[in-house]
UniProtKB/TrEMBL annotation, chain A:
PROSITE patterns, per the entry: GATASE_TYPE_1
Any GO BP annotation: glutamine metabolic process
SUPFAM superfamilies for the chain: Carbamoyl phosphate synthetase, small subunit N-terminal domain, Class I glutamine amidotransferase-like
Subunit and partners: Composed of two chains; the small (or glutamine) chain promotes the hydrolysis of glutamine to ammonia, which is used by the large (or ammonia) chain to synthesize carbamoyl phosphate. Tetramer of heterodimers (alpha,beta)4.
Species: Novipirellula herctigrandis
Reactions this protein catalyses: hydrogencarbonate + L-glutamine + 2 ATP + H2O = carbamoyl phosphate + L-glutamate + 2 ADP + phosphate + 2 H(+); L-glutamine + H2O = L-glutamate + NH4(+)
Name of the featured protein: Carbamoyl phosphate synthase small chain
Domain Carbamoyl-phosphate synthase small subunit N-terminal per the UniProt entry, residue ranges: 3-133
Keywords (A to Z) from UniProt: Amino-acid biosynthesis, Arginine biosynthesis, ATP-binding, Glutamine amidotransferase, Ligase, Nucleotide-binding, Pyrimidine biosynthesis
Alphabetized InterPro entries for the sequence: Anth_synth/Amidotransfase, CarbamoylP_synth_ssu, CarbamoylP_synth_ssu_N, CarbP_synth_ssu_N_sf, Class_I_gatase-like, CPSase_GATase1, GATASE
Origin organism lineage: Bacteria, Pseudomonadati, Planctomycetota, Planctomycetia, Pirellulales
TrEMBL record, chain B:
Cofactor note: Binds 4 Mg(2+) or Mn(2+) ions per subunit.
Keyword Ligase (UniProt): yes
GO cellular component: cytoplasm
Binding, Mn(2+) 4: E849, N851
Residues bound to Mg(2+) 2: E299, N301
EC number of this enzyme: 6.3.4.16, 6.3.5.5
Native species: Novipirellula herctigrandis
Segments of this protein annotated with the region Carboxyphosphate synthetic domain: 1-402
Keywords annotated in UniProt: Amino-acid biosynthesis, Arginine biosynthesis, ATP-binding, Ligase, Magnesium, Manganese, Metal-binding, Nucleotide-binding, Pyrimidine biosynthesis, Repeat
Residue numbers binding ATP 1: R129, R169, G175, G176, E208, I210, E215, G241, V242, H243, Q285, E299
Protein name: Carbamoyl phosphate synthase large chain
Stretches assigned to the MGS-like domain: 945-1082
């Protein structure tokens, strides 16, 4: 018999299920992801730092885990919620089981709860603080703990996931994706991309590397001067967890880099670019997390289906004149991409590197590639 | 970009009769398309030969043509209507083929009709093997290696490319017969040689074997600006080798990592782009080798399909509707998502439940057919179930199948622990050969302790699925230890219900009864909740009321409004005898209720249908039709009434149980329904009314049967009671036949008695559909059958109005109908089958059967008369009177409408096609004209029977029909046909002075009739049976006729009608007319 586990929300709702990972207790913002595949990529995405993630698709663990489909060395999220955890895994790519993976990485997880009810609650009430526990099963205690837990707003979660020092990157895309973008191992043509890592998903530098670039990863708090010393052909602003507003060190560096070097930002990187240009960001009610988010490209009139994972967004009204909206989320019309009118810089709120998710937006890497100096 | 303004009128081609591989799903897609296009202000012209469809309702399109689906007939419609565009992608393969023929014959060019959505070039590229292969190679996708060859030497050289095992497929054989897998070189040579011999063009296809690979489908939608989305992925439970229509399939894909899924998504988009489908939905099939991940593109359908209907129902995304709008120029992002209202149709649905589809087979109807599942589709229907987990969804699907299973085992058909428990050897054999029963044997294997790996090796079914099933068995084994229901804890009950166990299964496991389990469960406070199908996993609020049950915490049903609420119980999976006709009635019930301000609630489990479209009813419950599931819905929504008489036998079988549980069944009472089924009660009633029935009796054993038949006399009609579609029903002319068929009937009856009737030979059969309100009864249609009594009414052709009945007989029929309606207190629909037999020269009326419910002929009657029969009946059931609605007189149309049946014989090689009391047709067509003969000709053409204009006709009549030989022969000879006959019939013809060429019987050596057939020297066969069975000479002749595509008529009446039709066809070309015009003029 699996151990019991409980999830409590700050609004007093408690869900009872069973433990599917390590024993323990974690707090975090409870969010949901609507992707039907890619749980391992989601588990390892550093942007989930501080969050307890619910998978809306009920059957999770079916294809196990493997050493390739990871977006970081180990999971950063606070807790994991599923409806039904698979007892076995069946896939030729797998080399392990989800349960073992969770335990190995000391993750607290819960299964067996009405995840759809939870999602509907989050949808109507907004993302909430919650606590997930296998050690304390008192509803009262748990709800109090949820209420007492810190929220995401105003917190610098990036410092918890960014690297402490610079490194070079040479990991390539998986064989199929490489083939899809047109061949791997192109000879480097001397272009050098410096990635400001705020909790970067690995598929991004894989894309850069597979397109023949030299890739250097620097901590997100690296100064503009230090970055320029690396002589970059372009600077990439990575995704990352939480609220972009408190990251003033990043705003400063980006402001200074603007105009000196082509810039491309993804997700948090896109928000930071906007903030650096003078825009504001705001917290969405429950965010966009999934692999089916339609984005309208205002420049081409076409729609791409995108991977998204964000709880904050760029406020349209606050956009300075120097920024032009290039993409919008078709579901709620929020800003999904901006471009600097004078400088060589653009950002998208979604994840062209996918992993997990569709490959419709790979063209953005090609676009950045063309702009590299 | 808005809709196109340069086109005003659009022609849509339907898919024709229901056949294996092409069923209600195209009524669903066609109806959606018509609605979508008219919503945009286009004028829609529709052609379909199938009257039992919602799409051919006169208010679905602006111009509705129930005409044969041949390019020549459609050309006439084009000539008359002058549409600007033709939308070919919503009418299945039939629609696509007719469109291609129109293009090839220059019709579209001649009349300036533009093919929208996909043009002829695109269709050819997708459909023609070599072109498709080339296209796939161009975009770097793998296809199955292989080539067609004409000699053994060529075959051997291909073998070096594809390796062993290799598949050998003879070209152009019936139903793909002769296909086999070679595992070694010896076998290969033998199979190739054999295949070359079998193929009429001496050609075989040699392919690498991908049998046992994992199979997937992707549903893609594209707009004209190249925005593409995947609507749904489907994973087949059964591995490659079983046609996807015959496979258990699951949505979404369960065992793919995101990397694999995205590879398949990329490939799907590449395929639709390369093939060039401009707008609309396509279906792309893939195979994946489970150990290496090698992926192969199997095929692509450049149109909506059975799978796209399934995908629509599985996700809530209406593919056909969107496809229709895209065809006229809209872009995906311009169209709203109906379900969320706030978001757009340009996205990829994501679901938070598991969908399982199970096929329904009808092999019991075709005992001579090979029941092994292959790449040729053999199932006749399907059911779909939604659950939060695979286990729940699978168990629901199994009970939704209505084959006596109430989940994965632990029900009355479960042989485990009984004398019929299979041994290991049988289990292994059943696992390694895919068949309709394999899923049950998987359970036996699990019960016998076979490991997942062993079962996988035998079945190649993914281990993940097998582990899910073994979990069900493990839970069952745990529960079995309880010994009694009293020991079942709340937690165990909850877990069992969450894993999809039905009350019935739990009753079996705990040796209790279904109702006791239900009571215990409710006492424990365990009842299902209803969650909505919303395309988005609850990310957005859903506005469409489409629900499924599950055992979870939160219920999402809306609160009841002031409106009256009525549930319509649907028909479940299609099967022979219960199909689209009943779905048509259910849809009409729903439309009628909505018209009068009553909230309509549909319950059904068939994903192909219009009834399970989310906007057909005010509330839709996609649920199995069992007492438990329906009672749960009733508990949850508290209906004011439940309609059980429209969905065929399925809801009728539930009526008693529902009524006993206090559910308000409306319309004709359950007691009446039972009285009509109860032989003795019914006999009494007939006598009281002064009506006549053929002598009949009931037998519970062989001795009784023999006694009864003594009293009744031969010929006798034997059938088991409580079965559908004339199952195991036979006419016996003597004691030896009688003994044999009664024995069989007892087996099928399974404990129930066997019914014996005196068979009225050479009687004319008549069907009557009527509506009654308790006071008045109005006849809606009197249908005279073409074939004599003895052919199942679902299989015979029939005409409205009657063509040979006299006024006095018609008056008698009308009176009897009203008497019966009155006496039975019918409220709603009623169908009566009569027979008229000459008794001592006087036409005498007999009552064969009374069914106080919707019949299969309701849609045909409605189309023939223009009267919305089911609509009126529904309103009557809610308490309105016929008078109040102004329905007081029997509609008598000016034109003649003929319904003809369509059979699946081409799919079952070698099966004898003789018509009998057991129904075997899958669908129907209708021919309309001012003249009987022309209407009959059209019905034949529509059914695919191409009556020849000249050539040779082979006649062979059974001894009892010898008197008809001369007149039939003469009328054919007068039409200029050369007659062929074997010795006996030839002599008769010569005696009558009709010229005839004598041919050899099969036993008389060569060249015999079969040789002439194969040489294309016979254009029509008239062969009435004296015996039955594929092994008899005549059986062989009839089977050969099907294989050679030569029309074969098996009754004298039909032959006479055919002769009249052929004569009429000479008098002038067939004319087309829309229903709207016909009704306006009548």
């Amino acid at each position: 018999m699996p151990n019991p586990a409980k999830l409590a929300l700050e609004d007093g709702t408690v869900y009872e299920g069973y433990s599917i990972g390590s024993d323990g207790e974690v707090t975090g913002e409870v969010v949901f992801n609507t992707a039907m595949t890619g749980y391992q990529e989601i588990l390892t995405d550093p942007s989930y730092r501080g969050q307890i993630v619910t998978m809306t698709y009920p059957e999770i663990g079916n294809y196990g885990v493997n050493s390739i489909d990871i977006e970081h060395e180990s999971p950063s999220l606070a807790g994991f919620i599923v409806r039904e955890d698979s007892r076995i895994y069946s896939n030729y790519r797998a080399d392990g089981d989800l349960h073992d993976y969770l335990t190995e990485h000391n993750l607290v997880g819960i299964a067996g709860i009405d995840t759809r009810a939870l999602v509907r609650r989050i949808r109507t009430e907004g993302a909430m603080r919650g606590v997930l526990s296998t050690t304390d099963l008192s509803d009262e205690n748990l709800v109090r703990k949820a209420k007492d837990s810190p929220g995401l707003v105003g917190r610098d979660l990036v410092r918890e996931v960014m690297p402490s020092q610079s490194s070079t990157w040479d990991g390539k895309l998986d064989e199929w994706t490489a083939k899809e973008i047109g061949g791997t191992n192109r000879s480097a043509d001397g272009t050098h991309i410096v990635c400001m890592d705020f909790g970067m998903k690995w598929n991004i530098p894989r894309h850069f590397a597979s397109r023949g670039n030299r890739v250097t990863i620097v901590p997100g708090d690296t100064s503009a001067a230090d970055i320029m010393k690396l002589n970059p052909s372009g600077v990439f602003l990575s995704n990352g967890p939480g609220d972009p507003e408190p990251l003033d060190y990043a705003h400063r560096s980006i402001r200074e880099l603007l105009g000196d070097v082509p810039i491309f930002g993804i997700c948090l990187g896109h928000q930071l670019l906007a903030l650096a240009c003078g825009a504001k960001t705001f917290k969405l009610k429950f965010g966009h997390r999934g692999v089916n988010q339609p984005v309208f490209d205002l420049t081409t009139g076409k729609v791409e289906i995108t991977t998204q994972n964000h709880g904050f967004a760029v406020e349209e009204e606050s956009l300075p004149d120097c920024l032009e909206i290039t993409h919008r989320n078709l579901n709620d019309d929020t800003v999904a991409g901006v471009r600097h009118r004078e400088q060589n810089a653009f950002g998208v709120q979604y994840h062209p590197e996918a992993a997990s998710g569709p490959h419709d937006s790979h063209y953005l890497f090609a676009r950045f590639q063309e702009q590299l100096q | 970009m808005p809709r196109r303004d340069d086109i005003k009128k659009i022609l849509l081609i339907g898919s024709g009769p229901i056949i294996i591989g092409q069923a209600c799903e195209f009524d669903y897609s066609g109806t959606q398309a018509c609605k979508a296009l008219r919503e945009e202000g286009y004028e829609v012209v529709l052609v379909n030969s199938n009257p039992a469809t919602i799409m051919t309702d006169p208010n679905t399109a602006d111009g509705t043509y129930i005409e044969p689906l041949t390019w020549q007939m459609v050309e006439k419609i084009i000539e008359k209507e002058r549409p600007d565009a033709l939308l070919p992608t919503l009418g299945g393969q039939t629609g696509l083929n007719v469109a291609m023929d129109l293009q090839a014959n220059g019709v579209l060019e001649k009349y300036g009709v533009e093919m929208i959505a996909a043009n002829a070039k695109v269709i050819a590229k997708a459909e023609e093997r070599e072109q498709f292969k080339e296209a796939m190679e161009k975009i770097g996708l793998d296809v199955c290696k292989g080539r067609t060859v004409k000699t053994l030497e060529q075959a051997r050289s291909v073998l070096s490319e594809v390796g062993l095992p290799a598949v050998v497929r003879p070209s152009f054989t019936m139903g793909g017969s002769g296909s086999a897998i070679a595992y070694n070189r010896n076998e290969f040579d033998g199979l190739v040689q054999n295949g070359l011999d079998q193929s009429p063009v001496t050609e075989v296809l040699i392919e690498e074997s991908i049998i046992g690979w994992k199979e997937y489908e992707m549903e893609v939608v594209r707009d004209r600006e190249d925005n593409c989305v995947i609507i749904c992925s489907i994973e087949n439970f059964d591995a490659m080798g079983v046609h996807t229509g015959d496979s258990i399939t699951v949505a979404p894909a369960q065992t793919l990592t995101d990397k694999e899924y995205q590879r398949m998504r990329d490939a799907s988009l590449a395929v639709i782009r390369e093939i060039g489908v401009e707008t609309g939905g396509s279906n792309i099939q893939f195979a994946i080798e489970p150990n290496t991940g090698r992926m192969i593109v199997i095929e692509m359908n450049p149109r909506v399909s059975r799978s796209s209907a399934l995908a629509s129902k599985a996700t809530g995304f209406p593919i056909a509707k969107i496809a229709a709008k895209l065809a006229v120029g809209y872009l995906l992002w311009e169209l709203p998502n109906d379900i969320t209202q706030k978001t757009k149709a340009c996205f990829e649905p994501t679901i938070d439940y598991v969908v399982t589809k199970m096929p329904r087979f009808a092999f019991e109807k075709f005992p001579e057919a090979d029941a092994t599942l292959t790449t040729q589709m053999k199932s006749v229907g399907e059911t779909m179930a939604i659950g939060r987990t695979f286990k729940e969804s699978m168990q629901k699907a199994m009970r939704g199948l209505e084959v006596g299973a109430f989940g994965f085992g632990s029900d009355n058909r479960d042989a485990w622990g009984t004398d019929a428990q299979p041994d290991d050897h049988t289990i292994r054999a059943k696992l390694s050969t895919p068949g309709a029963e394999r899923i049950f044997y998987i359970r036996y294997a699990m019960k016998a302790g076979m490991s997942i790996d062993e079962i996988f090796e035998l079945t190649r079914i993914d281990r993940w699925f097998l582990d899910q099933l073994i979990q069900i068995v493990e839970q069952e084994n745990e529960l079995l230890k309880l010994g009694s229901l009293a020991n079942l804890t709340h937690k165990q009950m909850w877990e069992a219900k969450r894993n999809g166990f039905s009350d019935r299964q739990l009753a079996k496991i705990t040796s209790s009864t279904e109702l006791k389990v239900r009571a215990t469960r409710l006492e424990m406070g365990i009842k299902p909740v209803y969650k909505s199908v919303d395309t988005c996993a609850a990310e957005f609020e859903a506005y469409t009321p489409y629900y499924y049950s599950t055992y979870e915490q939160e219920d999402e049903l809306p609160t009841k409004t002031d409106k009256k609420r009525i549930i319509i119980l649907g028909g479940g999976p299609n099967r022979i005898g219960q199909g689209i006709e009943f779905d048509y009635c259910c849809c009409h019930a729903s439309f009628a209720l909505r018209e009068i301000g009553v909230e309509s609630v549909m319950v059904n489990s068939n994903p192909e249908t219009v009834s399970t479209d989310y906007d057909t009813s005010d509330l839709l419950f996609f649920e199995p039709l069992t007492i438990e599931d329906v009672l749960n819905i009733c508990d949850a929504i508290k209906p004011d009434g439940v309609i059980a008489q429209f969905g065929g036998q399925t809801p009728l079988n539930l009526a008693r149980g529902l009524k006993d549980a206090g559910v308000p069944i409306i319309g004709t009472s359950v007691e009446t329904i039972e009285a009509a089924e109860d032989r003795e009660l019914f006999q009494q009633l007939i006598e009281e009314l002064g009506l006549r029935q053929p002598p009949s009796g009931i037998a519970r054993n062989m001795d009784e049967a023999r006694r009864e038949v003594q009293k009744i006399g031969y010929p006798a009609l034997v059938r088991p009671s409580f079965v559908l579609g004339g199952r195991a029903m036979e006419i016996c002319y003597d004691q030896s036949q009688f003994d044999r068929y009664v024995a069989e009937a007892f087996i099928v009856a399974d404990g129930q008695p066997v019914l014996i009737d005196h068979f009225l030979e050479d009687a004319t059969e008549v069907d009557v559909d009527a509506v009654a309100d308790g006071t008045d009864c109005v006849i809606m249609g009197i249908m005279e059958h073409i074939e004599e009594a003895g052919v199942h009414s679902g299989d015979s052709a029939c005409a409205i109005p009657p063509f040979s009945l006299t006024q006095p007989i018609l008056a008698e029929i009308r009176e009897a109908t009203k008497k019966l309606a009155d006496r039975l207190q019918v409220i709603g629909l009623m169908n009566i089958q009569y027979a008229i037999k000459l008794v001592e020269g006087i036409p005498t009326l007999y009552i064969l059967e009374v069914n106080p419910r919707a019949s299969r002929t309701v849609p045909f009657v409605a189309k023939a008369t223009g009267v919305a029969v089911a609509n009126i009946a529904t309103k009557v059931m809610t308490g309105m009177t016929l008078k109040e609605m102004g329905v007081t007189t029997e509609p008598i149309p000016r034109h003649v409408s003929i319904k003809e049946s369509v059979f699946p014989f081409r799919k079952f090689a070698g099966v004898d096609i003789v018509l009998g009391p057991e129904m075997r047709s899958t669908g129907e067509v209708m021919g309309i004209s001012e003249k009987f003969s022309v209407a009959f000709a059209k019905s034949q053409l529509a059914a695919g029977t191409v009556l020849p204009e000249s050539g040779n006709v082979f006649i062979s009549l059974a001894p009892r029909h010898k008197d008809s030989v001369a007149s039939l022969g003469r009328s054919l000879a007068d039409l200029g046909f050369q007659l062929l006959a074997t010795s006996g019939t030839a002599q008769k013809l010569r005696d009558a002075g009709v010229a005839v060429t004598q041919v050899k019987k099969i036993a008389e050596g060569h060249p015999n009739l079969i040789d002439h057939l194969k040489n294309g020297e016979v254009q029509l066969i008239v062969n009435t049976p004296s015996g039955k069975g594929a092994r008899t000479d005549e059986g062989k002749i009839r089977a050969a006729a099907v294989q050679c595509g030569v029309p074969c008529i098996t009754t004298v009446a039909a032959a006479e009608a055919a002769a009249r039709a052929m004569e009429a066809m000479r008098e002038g070309p067939l004319q087309v007319e829309s229903l709207q015009n016909r009704y306006a003029n009548s």
